[in-house]
UniProtKB/TrEMBL annotation:
<keyword id="KW-0378">Hydrolase</keyword>
<keyword id="KW-0645">Protease</keyword>
<dbReference type="GO" id="GO:0016020">
    <property type="term" value="C:membrane"/>
</dbReference>
<feature type="domain" description="Band 7">
    <location>
        <begin position="22"/>
        <end position="186"/>
    </location>
</feature>
<dbReference type="GO" id="GO:0008233">
    <property type="term" value="F:peptidase activity"/>
</dbReference>
<dbReference type="InterPro" id="IPR036013">
    <property type="entry name" value="Band_7/SPFH_dom_sf"/>
</dbReference>
<protein>
    <submittedName>
        <fullName>Membrane protease subunits, stomatin/prohibitin</fullName>
    </submittedName>
</protein>
<dbReference type="InterPro" id="IPR001107">
    <property type="entry name" value="Band_7"/>
</dbReference>
<dbReference type="GO" id="GO:0006508">
    <property type="term" value="P:proteolysis"/>
</dbReference>
<dbReference type="Pfam" id="PF01145">
    <property type="entry name" value="Band_7"/>
</dbReference>
């Protein structure tokens, strides 16, 4: 059974271990925080490293000091022309005053992010009122966002204990009514272009068809003229050959012509020739007997 001395020693060692575990704490490189004593801040910006605190009396609250990102979707902005746009915003920020940040959050980690994005949107609304829809695709949008960040730097440091490192639009869209109006106008423009293109195409087709018909008529006329010319030349050559044959042997020529006439008249089997008794063909037939 342990002696009283041993029990006291064990209790003393346990107390020392408890004091050691509750009297020291470590702040990492990615953290910052505050140390309070009886609700009074004794260190409002804890640096990375090993720190000492009084057990039970001191309270330590640590925060992530890395870059944070907050979003705000569907915010309406009115441009200088009176047109409305819908913008999805993104802001990057980090804690630079842990004491102010802890006071602003009031125990709610989302409270600071919400207030920060509302402030960003309010400042951006003022800047956007000087821009047109066309400016949103130019450097003027970047200038407006930079102006918002410059204004927020000092203001949010004092109220929320944070520094805004960037503000940007994730997306910009038009309201549904405006989108429908744009689509209707685009559809009407497309239909007009399609009708114009169809009309122009029909006119062009008619012109091509008329040109083809004209070329066809010209080619046919030329072909007919060439054919007539060739036929005339052939007939002239045949006539010349007949004349030459007749000149050389009139009797044989008349006989050949008679045979030709006989063949053409009797080729169908029912032809009738009317010949005189003195016809050359009759004489040739008689002579052949």
């Amino acid at each position: 059974m342990p002696s009283n001395k041993s029990l006291v020693l064990i209790a003393l060692m346990a107390m020392l271990a408890w004091l050691a575990s509750t009297s020291f704490f470590v702040v990492s490189e990615q953290q910052t925080g505050i140390q309070r004593r009886f609700e009074r801040v004794v260190d409002g910006h804890l640096a990375p490293g090993l720190h000492v605190k009084l057990p039970i009396v001191d309270k330590v609250v640590l925060f992530d000091k890395r870059m944070q990102t907050s979003l705000l979707d569907g915010r309406t902005f009115v441009l200088s022309s009176g047109e409305e746009i819908l913008g999805d915003l993104v802001a990057t920020w980090q804690i630079d005053s842990p004491e102010r940040y802890d006071s602003a959050r009031k125990g709610d980690e989302n409270k600071v992010a919400h207030e920060l994005m509302q402030t960003v949107a309010t400042q951006l609304t003022e800047q956007m009122s000087h821009l047109t829809l066309a400016d949103l695709s130019t450097s003027r949008q970047d200038q407006a966002l930079q102006a918002v960040r410059s204004v927020l730097d000092s203001r949010l440091h004092d109220t929320l204990g944070v520094t805004v490192t960037g503000v940007a639009f994730r997306r910009i869209t038009l309201p549904d009514a405006r989108v429908a109006d744009v689509e209707q106008k685009m559809t009407a423009a497309w239909q007009h272009d399609a009708t114009t293109a169809t009309s122009d195409g029909q006119d062009m087709a008619d012109q091509v068809r008329a040109d083809a018909e004209r070329r066809k008529a010209m080619l046919l006329a030329t072909a007919h003229e060439n054919a007539e010319t060739a036929r005339g030349a052939t007939d002239a050559e045949i006539a010349a050959r007949y004349n030459d044959a007749f000149t050389r042997n009139p009797t044989f020529f008349r006989f050949y012509q008679g045979l030709k006439t006989w063949r053409e008249g009797m080729q169908h089997g029912n032809g009738v020739l009317v010949l005189g008794p003195e016809d050359d063909l009759i004489r040739w037939i008689k002579a052949g007997r």
